[in-house]
């Protein structure tokens, strides 16, 4: 990692000193947050404490962009993480050795109507239900009037590390198109994505499969109607794969999500509902569960869906990897003063298919959050959450409801 950082910094300095000052704009930015929080009874019982956590952590992100002109820039984002008191930068001495991450490093340039982003970058597909993460690859976006047509290639896994004459067979790639269409007051984003590999068994995400082909067909719709905004996402998944050791499976699954927000006087009311299929029979050759692609990340409630404090989710919840679940939410946000906002959310969640005990209810969760603006760019969040756990969270003796409380100090620049 240190060698990589030295190379990146050297490349950045070369760009700075080799380019005339009048032709280069250096843009710096970043984000920092410190969280102190407590997760209790996240296993659904109060004996093992297996998912309990009490601690403080810090995340720092630093951004540097070298802008050569309006059509060409070099974008970099770096991240530092530590938990206070750990032995990798959080202890006395604070000499971190491997908690520095290169999140993004890519070229962004436009030639005519075609924009290209090549390198390590971030991408959001279908609100995170498909992807919300960083990756190595390329995105080519063609602009035609008010319409944008991005073509993307995500290099999920490179098989050459295995060696041998057929090493390329182990590659795993995502290919797709995600246009942006504006129609009156609505924005529509159709999605077509293909995940493919000739032999996917070496990548941990697809371990157990050999030849692998999975397709996603979907669309996002967003509408703004004065004081009301609505959104919808629908995704159908299909494909097939050969199993290691013989046999094959066929995939057929779907995900539906709907949400909105309305301003009602001094309050803002919001809500959403989503459903992702589960597998109704693990013994047959049909995979009915919505398959979670690597990179999927959709945060929802504080305890079952990660929320602000994402060290753990409650037992048997899918967390931010949405599959085999139904969840519904209703919430309200108030602003009693300019610097203060108060939010309350109610969530109910259940498995789409019964678990091994014949249970499906994860529970009903209450989330409360207060955000206070201490000064420009500096915010303080106070969070409390309680899950009235169902038997699908935990079914046994010594059952106990999960709860969480904590605070976050954050700023961006």
Polypeptide structure, described:
The structure is a single chain. The protein has one helix and 20 strands. 4% of the residues lie in helices and 58% in strands. It has one helix spanning 2-18; strands at residues 25-40, 53-69, 72-83, 100-111, 114-125, 131-144, 147-157, 172-177, 181-183, 186-197, 209-225, 228-243, 248-264, 267-276, 286-287, 325-337, 340-350, 361-375, 378-389, 403-412. The radius of gyration is 23 Å and the shape is globular. The chain starts with a helix and ends with a strand.
Could you list some keywords that capture this structure?
413 residues, mainly beta, 18-stranded antiparallel β-barrel, 20 strands, 4% helix, 58% strand, disordered N terminus
Strand proportion: over 45%
Give the mean pLDDT: 92
Strand count, sense and closure of the main sheet? Answer: 18 strands, antiparallel, barrel
Spans of 5+ residues with little confidence (pLDDT < 50)? 1-10
Order of helices and strands: HEEEEEEEEEEEEEEEEEEEE
Radius of gyration: 23 Å
């Amino acid at each position: 990692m240190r060698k990589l950082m030295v190379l990146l910094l050297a490349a950045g300095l070369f760009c700075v000193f080799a380019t005339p000052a009048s032709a280069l704009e250096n843009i710096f930015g970043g984000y920092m947050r410190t969280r102190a929080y407590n997760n209790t009874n996240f296993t659904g019982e109060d004996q093992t404490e297996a998912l309990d956590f009490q601690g403080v952590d810090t995340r720092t992100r630093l951004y540097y962009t070298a802008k050569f002109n309006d059509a060409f820039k070099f974008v970099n984002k770096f991240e530092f993480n530590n938990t206070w008191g750990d032995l990798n930068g959080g202890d006395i001495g604070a000499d971190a050795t491997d908690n520095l991450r290169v999140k993004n490093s890519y070229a962004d340039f436009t030639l005519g109507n075609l924009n290209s982003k090549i390198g390590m970058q971030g991408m959001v597909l279908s609100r995170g239900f498909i992807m919300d993460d960083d990756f190595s690859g390329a995105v080519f976006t063609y602009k035609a009037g008010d319409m944008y047509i991005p073509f993307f290639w995500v290099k999920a896994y490179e098989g050459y590390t295995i060696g041998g004459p057929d090493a390329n067979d182990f590659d795993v790639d995502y290919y797709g198109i995600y246009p942006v269409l504006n129609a009156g007051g609505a924005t529509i984003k159709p999605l077509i994505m293909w995940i493919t590999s000739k032999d996917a068994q070496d990548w941990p995400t697809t371990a157990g499969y050999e030849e692998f082909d999975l397709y996603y067909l979907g669309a996002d719709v967003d509408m703004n109607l004065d004081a009301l905004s609505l959104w919808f996402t629908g995704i159908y998944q299909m494909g097939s794969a050969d199993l290691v050791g013989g046999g094959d499976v066929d995939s057929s699954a779907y995900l539906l999500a709907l949400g909105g927000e309305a301003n009602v006087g001094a309050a803002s009311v919001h809500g959403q509902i989503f459903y992702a299929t589960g597998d109704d029979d693990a013994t047959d050759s049909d995979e009915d569960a919505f398959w979670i692609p690597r990179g999927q990340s959709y945060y929802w409630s504080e305890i079952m869906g990660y929320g602000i404090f994402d060290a753990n989710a409650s037992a048997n919840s899918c967390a931010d990897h949405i599959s085999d679940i139904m969840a519904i939410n209703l919430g309200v946000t108030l602003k009693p003063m300019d610097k203060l906002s108060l939010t309350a959310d109610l969530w109910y969640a259940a498995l789409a298919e019964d678990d091994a005990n014949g249970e499906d209810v994860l529970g009903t969760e209450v989330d409360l959050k207060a955000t206070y603006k201490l000064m420009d760019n500096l915010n303080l969040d106070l969070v409390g959450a309680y899950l009235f756990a169902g038997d699908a969270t935990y079914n046994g003796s010594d059952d106990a409801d999960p709860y969480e409380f904590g605070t976050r100090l954050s700023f961006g620049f």
